[in-house]
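Thread amino acids onto this structure.
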């Protein structure tokens, strides 16, 4: 069985988490908070920073430039803000 590098697993985890926040209606519709997996989000942020930290990001691209995030935002909020999404 091939070994999958930790960075690939981290990237997949981050993508999953970002998609969760992009679809908050689904979570709230079934009675769950938006920040369903705070420990996963917290562990994904350093992986995402390591992968995307030096890459150029533009509006309209897969990930826009980092957005401001409130100090008290959740770990998921910090992750998606870093990836260019607006955090409410």
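Threaded sequence (88 positions):
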């Amino acid at each position: 069985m091939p070994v999958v590098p930790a960075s690939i697993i981290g990237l997949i985890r981050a993508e999953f988490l970002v998609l969760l926040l992009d679809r908050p209606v689904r979570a709230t519709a079934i009675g769950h908070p938006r920040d369903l997996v705070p420990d996963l989000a917290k562990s994904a942020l350093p992986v995402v920073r390591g992968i995307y930290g030096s890459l150029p990001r533009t509006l309209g691209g897969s990930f826009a430039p980092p957005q401001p995030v409130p100090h008290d935002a959740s770990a998921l909020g910090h992750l998606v803000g870093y990836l260019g999404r607006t955090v409410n």
